[in-house]
Write a structure and sequence with these properties.
The complex is a heterodimer of chains A (362) and B (264). Chain A is built from 17 helices and two strands. Chain A is mainly α and 362 residues long. The two termini of chain A are 43 Å apart. Chain B folds into two domains: 170 residues, Rossmann fold; 79 residues, no CATH class. Chain B is globular. Classes of the chains: A mainly alpha (362), B alpha/beta (264).
Chain lengths: 362, 264
Amino acid sequence: MSSANPKPSAPVLDHDKIADQAGSGSYVANFEDKDTPLQRFQKFLHKYPVAAPTIVLIFAIIGFSILVGDRFLHPFNLSLVLQQVTIIGVIGVAQTLIILTAGIDLSVGAIMVLASVVMGRMAIDHGLEAWMALLIGMGVGALAGLINGTLITRFKLPPFIATLGSWNVFFALNLWYSKSQTIRSQEIANNAPLLQWLGETVSFFGARLTYGSLLMLALFVLIWYALNWTAWGRHVYATGDDPAAAKLAGIRTDRVLLSVYVLAGVVCAIGAWVLIGRIGSVSPQAGYTTNLDSITAVVIGGCSLFGGRGSIFGTLIGALVVGVFRNGLALAGVDVLWQEFTVGILIIVAVGMDQWIRKGTA
Amino acid sequence: MTAHYDQQPVLQARGIVKRYGSVTAIDHADLTLYPGEILAVIGDNGAGKSSLIKALSGALVPDEGEILLDGKPVHFNSPMEARELGIETVYQNLAVSPALNIADNLFLGRELRKPGILGSVFRMLDKKAMEERAQAKMTELGLMTIQNISQAVESLSGGQRQGVAVARSALFGSKVVIMDEPTAALGVKESRRVLNLIKEVRDRGLPIILISHNMPHVFEVADRIHIHRLGKCAATITPESHTMSEAVAIMTGAMEVDSDSEAA
């Protein structure tokens, strides 16, 4: 039998001894100093994923205020940008949650439109109270998310394929249920004004904010809290980061994934309410580009498509970057096609940056 | 060392059997772990040692036999159940989340919430308490060459990550820590640190089951060595009673051992 003393109270000195024995007492801290400025920048971006889009946003604002002048910086114009990005922002919240788990949801736009049609028809055609119509719409969103989540966790379909399928299914259901008919704005205003309430504005110093924009900001704060200050949020990151490790740590990753898809569905239904407020009417053809726009916002916002990395506020910044470029270029009189061109370049640069940043600490 | 061989074993497996179809992976295996010791488990590939370890950590439910924890029979249907009873496992493939920081990793799946309404209604994490306890545990184990507890685990070296995994098991393992090939993926220097860490954990009173292929490592840190062969325990030796080549001979069946050499 080997022998040693029990050491019930750990002598503090031992730690130094151990480090010495290892012959590596200081090598841990050393490598930091040898970085080139570029590497240090890479590490900084790695640690603060929101930094890169924020820098881009600041430069874009400065650039356009020089290029276009006061018209761009006017509070009214800036609040217009915020209004324009509100829907993308809300749907971006849903998309961020899913991309953090290393998934992707191509059906977010379809869920939003389907939920808006359900809200509109429940309130107008079936004469339900507006708040009940809203609740049923939320339920449809949750159900749609549950279907996506079940396909991915139970039937193990890749999220891309599962939601590509459900996108088409939800969109077809939406055309069937709406009979491809638009519910006119006037009709909603007369019968269920609550549905349009998020489109109303409040004024702050010449800026006109919609309740929808305020709801979007509140949603960002709420989800930020859930992701950063609750165990659930840590589990979302861990599941996206390394599902095997998360499972070994005792996290039920399938349940986390399912909860994320259901929550994303509900957020999309909130987006449906915002959508009705924004366009006034309920149209089965509205929000056609929201799917890809939401992914654009998330990617420009610095979230990694490989999961587990990124911040929810990055998506808000990402949406604002797109909004500022579109608005600024439009004010500068640039053709719409160059707006699309610019957004495309931004996406490619953002994903390229993500690759480069992740390489930094591999 | 303070292994207390006169005391009741912490963990005991008796007559464990596990069959996969016609293959018998564990054939009436016994294993005994005493308080305060490092018990190394060695065996050739396919000897059934990993199946035995899985049975002890709850990852596998044996067909026959019993497992006693502190003398009381226990049954685990999942690793979580084993964990709740104080048996922690450190996995070979470093089960840590690279993008999360050290404190998050230590408490992953077992987060602490703030007291009062903030915790119960708003589910708010008590980050401060978790960081403090993580810091304390890492310092206690001599791991605080890692500068910052809120550093992402991916910025650490392989050995330091293993250190995080070991610290997690030491933080929550109240009875037993099982370590599966903790030095397999590490270089020489890093292995040394991890071996020291293993002894440190043992000296703090937690008995350890160490699975390893590395004979020098086993002979350096183990108090007793359980040699697994053909699905059962071929012998239990100590680093003093046998040499490395004898251990290998027993492992491969070139040498028979009578029960007299049974340690303790």
